[in-house]
Predict the structure of DUF1845 domain-containing protein.
Amino acid sequence: MAAVLDFPPEPERQPQGTAGRPALSVPSASGSGLKPIERLTSDGRIERINPEIDAKTVLRYSSQFARNYIRSDYNFCASKIAVARGGKVKALEKALRDTANWLGKTDEWLARHEARRLEMPHELIELTITRPLAGLLVRCLTQYDRIFVRSTERMIERKITDQDRANILANAERRLKHIVQVCMPDNDQYDFDGQRHES
């Protein structure tokens, strides 16, 4: 599966104003159409953590993937990030920064394909940030959801193909799921340089 950055590079263009262009809208019978998140898994685990920082943020999301990740994986990752030490911190920093950089470049690539703004139904949820790296995970989720919306806009206007969009989202989702995999092993499973021990 090709990454979005494998697409042929396009020449830089000056953005044209879209103020006169009407925004598209997607009708939804009940708000976003996503099932509301009643509770996040690992609630008990994160409540037992003494956070490095005591912050909350409100995340806006429109995609089913973001909803599932928030419900099933966010609190688990935030609690594992809070107690990470030594080489595991380095492994998490690398995974999160690589993901954030890839998502940022993909977002920039999509932005070069101008399209009318799509008014996507969305949901809001308050998340606990236990450590700056958990804040970076929230940023990655925000970037993912922006890519979800922008790729939909560009696909509707035939600026990218359905397959382009599928490849972009699959790559983004794989990178976010990789962060969960890095969170799972205990601290002692990582060398000081962030490499995981061979089994």
Observations:
- The radius of gyration is 18 Å.
